[in-house]
Specification:
Layout (H helix, E strand, L loop, with lengths): L4 E4 L2 E2 L4 E6 L2 E6 L6 E9 L3 E11 L25 H15 L20 E9 L2 E7 L6 E3 L8 H11 L2 H5 L6 E7 L3 E6 L9 E3 L6 E3 L9 H17 L4 E5 L5 H8 L4 E6 L2 H13 L6 E4 L2 H4 L9 E5 L8 H10 L3 E6 L2 H13 L3 E8 L9 E7 L2
Parallel strand pairs: 4-6, 14-15, 14-17, 15-16, 17-18
Antiparallel strand pairs: 1-5, 2-3, 3-4, 5-6, 7-8, 7-10, 8-9, 10-11, 12-13, 18-20, 19-20
Amino acid sequence: MKLPAQVVISEVAYGGRGVGRLDGKVCFVPGTLPGETVAIEVLKDRGNFTEAKPTVILTPSPHRIRPACPLASHCPGCSYQHTDYGEEVRIKNKQLQSMLPLSPLLPPVAAPRPDGYRNKMALHAQADGKDRRLGYFMEDNTTILDVPACPLAVAPLNALLAERRADPSFLKTLRNDMTITFRWTEKDGAVWWRNRAAENDVWLVESSVIGPLAVPRNSFYQMNPAMADRLVVAVMDRLKANPPDTAVDLYCGVGIFALAAATLGIPRVLGVDVDGPGIRAAEFNARKLGLPGIQWKTATAHDGIPELEHPQRTTLIVDPPRSGLGRQMIRDLIKHRPARILYISCAPDTMARDAAWLGEGGYTILSSQLFDMFPRTAHFESLTEFHIP
């Protein structure tokens, strides 16, 4: 009888899969931890690496715990439910260091709690005859995993989800390709809507370290408010350490980093975003906070670069989507040469790519720091400070 293949897990790659070696090739095994010996079933041979699933954890890590979520083995959203939280942060910090191997890393900032933090859930509907599912897409991007509750969400969202799921008339209205969004703020409580909210819809009010902020329902705001505050404070600390004459916040959303810069007394602050409702909310937020001197511009981040009138006295704040800044944006930044760039990233792989391109243009990294905005998932936020002589 042929014995099952075994691998020893040496590390966890970005994305959450354990890394071992099988027959001399890299083998990726989800749900595993460094130091574990695991019996596996090979799923795919990709030529230069293999993909497998664990069948038995033969030698478990001392950091292995029982998942808090009963869906952990099926739901693709969480990669670290089987890990104690301290080890999860250590693993993620090692991943960031591996992407920026020559860069100084500041100590990682862990979340106050690894669960019950999400202020937003976007659940997808699937209707098959009388069967109704409401949950997350599985790895095939087609099948919906039915989610009665998500332990990452704040309690009021799970209570509202349970209320909706208990209403037969609500379930009957679910259709394929429908998205139900659940959102919570301290002021507004838990609310929900179908698909995309109307552009001129009622704004929500989000609490923040700099004061209450109006946020249109379709506009971006961090889903972990406690960690969002820590990130804003870190940006402010870096601005205070090297005060610029001008701070330009590209991808500004509802304006939180531009507003934070203005509270420090920076003489000129500009916020740029392509989201019109977001910019209107930013203008409103500035008035409510008594910061009317900020300039706001509804435009792409690329169109905001020419605003760097005195680059040697300018700090640029960028918080791009997962795709990062991209090659052309980097070329234009290098051409204008702002003295400092504070790069907030939710995707360290694309940030590391952009860092290499910035390096080609003469920028160096002063520091980088992990902010675990998304505990239990494969994702995390980082703040990296670049400067140029």
